[in-house]
Design brief:
The structure holds two protein chains of two kinds.
Chain A lengths: L5 E6 L2 E2 L4 E8 L3 E12 L10 E4 L8 E3 L9 E4 L12 E9 L6 E9 L4 E8 L2 E8 L3 E5 L9 E9 L3 E9 L17 E6 L11 E3 L2 E2 L9 E2 L4 E9 L6 H8 L7 E4 L15 E2 L8 E4 L3 E4 L20 E4 L13 E4 L7 E8 L4 E8 L9 E5 L1 H6 L5 H4 L3 H5 L4 E2 L1 H8 L1 H4 L15 E3 L21 H13 L4 E5 H7 L1 H4 L4 E4 L5 E2 L1 H12 L3 E4 L7 E2 L1 E2 L6 E3 L37 H4 L1 E12 L1 E3 L9 H4 L19 E8 L10 E6 L7 E2 L22 E6 L5 E4 L17 H14 L9
Parallel strand pairs in A: 2-27, 28-31, 28-32, 32-34, 33-35, 34-44
Antiparallel strand pairs in A: 1-3, 3-25, 4-5, 4-6, 4-26, 7-16, 7-22, 8-13, 8-19, 9-10, 9-16, 10-11, 11-12, 13-14, 14-15, 17-18, 19-20, 19-24, 21-22, 23-24, 26-27, 30-37, 36-37, 38-40, 38-42, 39-41, 41-43, 43-44
Helix pairs in contact in A: 8-10
Chain B lengths: L12 H19 L2 H9 L10 H11 L7 E7 L3 E6 L19 H15 L5 H4 L1
Antiparallel strand pairs in B: 1-2
Helix pairs in contact in B: 1-3
Classes of the chains: A alpha+beta, B mainly alpha.
Chain lengths: ~750, ~130
């Protein structure tokens, strides 16, 4: 393979004219990096398409900079930079926490410690090859005691350790098995408790490294804290006690969740839960105020050791949600040094841009989105699916999952970016489709890392395009056809709502606007309801609930619910978003199916081949003559295309009055010709049967629809992810292009849309 | 007797999977004929229409196999040049077979992967493949 040697990201992802944007670049080889600003038009190199296009931006003077390798710290953990003055480890102490390790036998993992790995100084409570250990050291001599019984994965334990400089060390584990808090329940005859003591006088040298939860510091070096021995699993209520030993009664009380009077610090991970969730990256210490800083956003709002299934929403029972789930492979921010800051020219037009950084080996294109000057808006808005881009960022499950090739009905065809992400997973982070090392679904994603599948030339691993790279076909087509447009993003509409959309005669979606927040759904509903015009030119839109972090917009959360076309499913009791307290899952199952706003909603996927649309009687309605101009009734629409050779493909949506399609909706055309590999979505399967495939089941089809709303507004839906990749066929002279152009011209005009009632 | 050592307990679903692969593999092997291989060569990804039920069954069996060691196509030059590689567990290096064959279309590489998988999964003898 051809390894990538340069990579980068920017912050923010979306900017306005006059803003500064920071670029963070890491190079495997030191040396000068040449930057260049380009406007991205199209990246698809498919020889059957128009070819990749980018336009250098003149007049932006970017100076070369010195490239260097930048390190990424993976792994969720908590850093506590100051401990209570009442705590002096060298004089003896006890430590307690609850832990539910998910990979207990995976080498050495730290639960909590003030330990410097480089110097072997301090103390640490952790796991080694499945056993709990507790150790103290003064640098040259380390004393360690281990329990004798290995821990079971996914089971909660109350873990205590005590240190007396004169008498020695004790460590103990007590299983806390409930009916639903762990992998198995009380029917298992478990004998897994263990207590071990090492007697003697053992010195402990306090390190200047900070106390870390779920990892330990690499060294005492001041500045940024680098950690090692990252932990997989849940931790709840870690606490430090000013007592050099624990009685049996005290140990029992700790296992029961009591905080003894000798405690000098206790981190309560449920503290801070409100009706709007717990989006904070702070771990509250409830005794002395020695709060901890969460790094790499471990999973919050997780069921604790006492979760009993009586409440599934963490805001209603925070006392049962005291756990944080840590993962050694989570990344929320690479935290690299800034390589280049660029001031966006005031006169630069709205669009998709990239900073090209080149060291003469390979070229990295760091994509960002530029908002319009608010005093110079176009009539057409393209809404980039930045939430969805983040949900899929650096996705690996499509390569990794055994069943993925069956889902896609295709042999994997990889290229350099896919292999790079696969081999260097810990440096790129995971998508919300992937699994952490312990099998837990990934629920957070960030733009503060290189995102290789949001690059113009990227190809998805099943020899196709996906999301951003598909969307560029729509932007390229609008340019070719002479439509002027602005670009805004999900993040903009999430923040400013429908008022932002109302600046435009028509809002055009991307090809796969799948991940939507409540403000985004509300904005679309208010916009269409008040006379706006929308063109839904994608498939599987407005499907999963997603929530950006209110304080850290680069971070998005997805809690997958009990149903849907999903890479993973949230565990029982963990389906509500930590960022907002909202229920996760499908918008349809929250009473807000996409049909209610866009007229159609997700019905089936067909990743191998695509199919054309065939017109239905409404296409002949004279009220739609403007839409069907130049398209004979018997002509199929979209019988060619760059993805699967058809306009109805990948994922598509259907008209359904029972799910809220407006009753006056015109059903213009529907697809036919899907095959046995294409499937009905799970939420429609109820009783799965053998015929729920594209060859046999009528739900496997996409629908082209149109309805008018009030004040001259309305909505057109093409309802397929591959619609826009049919646009360039036959040099843009085809019915998908014709129909899209007819609608876009009409919607962009100031004339009210023809009413259909 | 109480349970105290997690190391004593293995996941016995592996036993079922071994039995399933043995029995299902034998059924699928019966479907692999020269005609079926020819059908895949001409229509590997349904671009010429529906595949036969037999080919669908064979492809589903191959595609659902565990990921480690699974062949994939590697596009070394976009739409012009392909190789075959082996997927490993996440974070490990991707490996490439020693024979280093170069294919000039996706069609060719997909067909070669199909043939290799048939042999590796025990659905076709190596002698008849060569």
């Amino acid at each position: 393979m051809r390894p990538l040697t340069i990579r980068g990201y920017c912050d923010p992802l979306v900017v306005s004219p006059g803003d500064d944007i920071n670029f963070y670049v890491s190079c495997d080889h030191p040396g000068e990096v040449s930057p260049r600003l380009v406007r991205v038009v199209l990246g698809d190199e498919n020889p059957d398409g128009p070819g990749a296009k980018e336009i250098p931006v003149e007049g932006v003077n970017l100076m070369p900079f010195e490239g260097m390798a930048q390190r990424t710290q993976a792994g969720g953990h908590i850093v506590v930079s100051a401990l209570p003055s009442a705590f002096n480890a060298a004089q003896g102490f006890s430590v307690h926490l609850f832990a539910s390790p998910t990979l207990p036998a995976a080498g050495q993992q730290a639960l909590i410690g003030q330990w410097s790995q480089a110097d072997s100084r301090g103390w640490e409570l952790g796991l080694v090859d499945g056993h709990v250990f507790f150790r103290v050291s003064e640098g040259n001599v380390t004393t360690q005691v281990e329990t004798t019984k290995a821990l079971f994965a996914g089971i909660w334990y109350s873990i205590c350790a005590s240190y007396d400089p004169d008498t020695g060390l004790t460590v103990s584990q007590t299983a806390v098995v409930g009916s639903c808090n762990g992998r198995f329940g009380p029917v298992v005859d478990l004998d897994n408790d263990s207590t071990q003591t090492m007697s003697g006088a053992f010195p402990l040298a306090v390190t200047s490294a900070p106390l870390v939860i779920a990892a330990v510091a690499e060294s005492e070096n001041p500045g940024r804290v680098w950690v090692t021995h990252q932990y997989s699993g849940k931790i709840e209520a870690p606490k430090l006690l000013n007592s050099t030993s624990l009685s049996a009664a005290e140990t029992l009380a700790l296992a029961d969740g009591k905080v003894p009077s000798t405690a000098v610090a206790c981190w309560d991970f449920a503290e801070g839960i409100t009706r709007t969730g717990i989006p904070s990256d702070q771990a509250v210490e409830i005794i002395a105020g020695c709060h901890g800083q969460l790094v790499n956003t471990p999973d919050r709002a997780m069921t604790g050791r006492n979760w009993d299934d009586t409440e599934h929403h963490f805001i209603h029972a925070p006392e049962q949600y005291g756990a944080i789930w840590f993962h050694p492979d989570s990344i929320d921010d690479c935290r690299w040094d800034v390589s280049l800051t660029m001031r966006i020219p005031d006169d630069l037009g709205s669009g998709v841009y990239a900073l090209e950084v080149d060291q003469g080996r390979d070229v990295e294109r760091i994509v960002f989105f530029l908002r319009p000057n608010p005093n110079n808006r176009k009539k057409i808005l393209f809404l980039a699916s930045t939430f969805t881009y983040l949900a899929y960022a650096n996705q690996q499950v499509a390569v990794q999952a055994a069943v993925a090739q069956s889902v896609f009905a295709h042999t994997a065809i990889l290229h350099d970016n896919e292999i790079e992400v696969h081999e260097r997973s810990l440096e790129y982070g995971l998508s919300t489709y992937d699994y952490h090392a312990d099998g837990k679904g990934v629920q957070y994603s960030t733009w503060r890392r290189p995102i290789l599948n949001m690059r113009p030339q990227h190809r998805y691993c099943y020899s196709t395009l996906w999301n951003f790279t598909t969307d560029l076909h729509l932007l390229n087509w609008m340019e070719q056809m002479g439509f002027e447009f602005d670009v805004l993003t999900d993040h903009d509409v999430h923040e400013h709502g429908s008022e932002l959309l109302k600046n435009y005669n028509v809002v055009v979606t991307a090809s796969h606007p799948e991940y939507y927040s409540t403000p985004l759904v509300n904005a679309w509903e208010e916009y269409i309801a008040s006379g706006g015009r929308g063109m839904y030119l994608g498939g599987n839109g407005m499907y999963w609930v997603s929530v950006p972090n209110p304080d850290r917009p680069y971070l998005i959360e997805v809690r997958r619910g009990e149903q849907g076309d999903q890479g993973w499913r949230a565990n029982p009791g963990e389906t509500f978003h930590s960022h907002s307290g909202e229920k996760g899952g499908l918008w349809r199952l929250r009473g807000r199916a996409a049909q209610r706003i866009w007229g159609v909603g997700y019905t089936a996927h067909a990743f191998g081949t695509s199919a054309p649309y065939f017109q239905l009687p409404d296409a002949k309605d004279p009220r739609l003559d403007w839409m069907m101009e130049g398209i004979a009734y018997d002509d199929p629409i979209g019988d060619t295309g760059l993805i699967g050779n058809g306009a109805a493909g990948h994922e598509f949506d259907r008209y359904d009055l029972t799910l809220g399609t407006p009753p006056n909706t015109m059903l213009v055309a529907s697809s036919f010709g899907h095959n046995v590999y294409d499937m009905v979505v799970p939420e429609d399967q109820y009783f799965p049967s053998s015929g729920m495939n594209g060859l046999e089941h009528p739900n496997v089809h996409g629908d082209i629809t149109y309805f008018s709303s009030r004040n001259g507004g309305g909505m057109f839906a093409a309802a397929s992810m591959t619609w826009v990749t049919s646009l360039p066929m036959n040099n843009y002279d085809n019915h998908v292009s014709r129909l899209t152009g007819n609608v876009l011209r009409r919607f962009a005009s100031s004339e009210p849309l023809p009413a259909v009632d | 007797m109480a349970l105290s050592d997690p190391g004593k307990y293995r996941d016995k679903s592996a036993d079922f999977m071994a039995m399933w692969h043995s029995k299902r593999g034998a059924e699928v092997r019966e479907l692999v004929t020269e005609e079926l291989i020819e059908e895949h060569a001409t229509n590997p990804e349904c671009e010429l229409g529906h595949q036969s039920g037999e080919l669908v069954q064979v492809l589903n069996y191959l595609r659902m196999a565990p990921t480690p060691g699974k062949d994939f196509g590697y596009m070394t030059s976009p739409f012009q040049e392909y190789r075959i590689g082996l997927i490993s567990v996440r974070g490990a290096e991707v490996t490439f077979p020693a024979d280093e064959r170069i294919f000039t279309s996706e069609h060719e590489v997909v067909q070669e992967i199909f043939l290799r998988r048939l042999v590796r999964m025990g659905l076709r003898d190596e002698e008849s493949a060569s």
